């Protein structure tokens, strides 16, 4: 199966803006990671559900 590759160049922020922005706090980082993990779990569960449904139809 082909996988979609996320582009690393989709962010159009200026370098100066990135370099002068205050660093992320631990709480902000934790929230970002929780969202990322939740999204990944949803994708994995959907993939497993799709495979399980496909396996049911193949058995018939």
Automatic annotation (TrEMBL):
Domain of life: Bacteria
Protein name: Uncharacterized protein
Organism of provenance: Rugamonas apoptosis
